[in-house]
Amino acid sequence: MKTRICGTGSALPARVVTNDDLSKIMDTSDAWISSRTGIRSRHLAVEETLTDLSEKAALQALEEAGIEPGDLDMILAATLSADKLLPSLSCELQSRLGAVGAVAFDINAACSGFLFALQTADVYIRCGTYRNILVVGGEILSKLMDWQDRSTCVLFGDGAGAAVVRPDEGCGILSSIQGSDGSRGEALLCENRKNNNPYVTNGTELSYVSMDGQEVYKFAVRTVPKAILDAVEKAGFAVDEIDLFLLHQANIRIIESVAKRLKVPLERFPMNLAECGNISAGSVPILLDYVNRRGMLHPGDKVVLAGFGAGLTWGASALTW
Ligand code: UT7
Asked: In CATH, which of 3.40.50.300, 3.40.47.10, 3.40.190.10, 3.90.1300.10 is domain 174-320?
């Protein structure tokens, strides 16, 4: 028994902000952003909530899978930027969808979040506990950015992606790799709100995302190729047999470096980074939906999904489509 992705969906906020737009409000340029990262624009939420975007993505995924919200046994939402601390994004989504029979909880593994949620769903399905699981990854990271810090705020975007997974005897997830290294967590950091009980005095300061870009870059180019190779080997494939590699969209230079280390042509690494920026837990499912909607996935194709980011965390899965 395998866990098969039977439907995908995605939603991006209406407002598109180009690098040139950003250069009007801070000391940056299209030349710097696009040459260092490959990002040209991103969608930023103005009217939309993360629940709105996740609902839209989820409905598309359910439609393609041919199931109703009432058929769902479980909703897993990967996010670090839920609309509320309580209730979770997954519970808000359950309520919006009317998925009354689903158990719902969130997973925070930052940019690896969708991979970790998918891998969690895979275990529930292979154990026979649940059959119909909605896995969502999404972020409104723009609310966690310091818009005075040009070194981080230009990199990220908002959006949500979704996948419905079900048991299948034929195709599906064949192997998964996961890893975490909390000792390097300072490299990509955002404090929660400070303790504000009556016995502490420094309770109100808000924190925003800060990143040691070069540390994260080095971590990514060393860790991701190994995670992919391990997942591919565990699945019983050779790396040159893989049709598509769907990587977390953080930086084109990271993706180029991974392709080079794996000795695989860059054409097998589809990207939507130029139009979306880095959407953390949203990036892999949005890219998956992007390639699915464009007919780039065919039955039986060998696909690798890989994510990496804060924690530090990383994950890769190899599957047949
Ligand atoms: O999902 C989480 C994953 N995160 C990542 O994958 C991030 C990985 N890291 C990276 O992608 C790259 O390290 C960055 C794109 C973040 C930065 O690229 P870099 O080549 O490492 O640049 P840098 O941080 O060394 O900065 C070079 C220069 C600095 O100026 P000086 O000190 O050399 O004069 C920065 O102040 O670029 C300057 N700079 C900017 N200039 C224009 C930094 N941000 C900007 C900006 N516009 N937005």
From this structure: 3.40.47.10
Pick 2-169's CATH classification: 3.40.50.790, 3.30.365.10, 3.40.50.720, 3.40.47.10: 3.40.47.10
Mean pLDDT of 230-234: 98
Check pocket membership of 220 for ligand 1, CB cut-off 6 A. Answer: yes
Helix (H) or strand (E) segment spanning residue 162? strand 158-168
The pLDDT score that the predictor gives to residue 201 is: 79
Distance 13 CA to ligand 1 centre (A): 25
Question: For 153-171, how does the pLDDT look when each residue is reduced to its tens digit (9 = 90+)?
Answer: 999 999 999 999 999 999 9
The predicted structure's pLDDT at residue 196: 83
Residues forming a β-bridge with 253: none
- Cα of 299 vs centre of ligand 1, distance in Å, is 40
pTM of the model: 0.96
Residues whose CB falls within 8 Å of the CB of residue 63, separated by 6 or more in sequence, listed in order? 7, 9
pLDDT at 205 over 80: no
Which residue carries 């180009």 as its tokens? 18
Among residues 19, 251, 278, 292, which one is catalytic?
Answer: 278
Contact call for residues 161 and 175 (beta carbons, < 8 A): no
Residue-level pLDDT at 298: 96
Greatest alpha-carbon pair distance for the chain in Å reads: 60
Sorting pLDDT into bands at 50, 70 and 90, what band is 204? low
Q: What share of the chain is helix, strand, coil (3-state, %, to 5)?
A: 40, 25, 35
> What single-letter amino acid sits at 197?
N
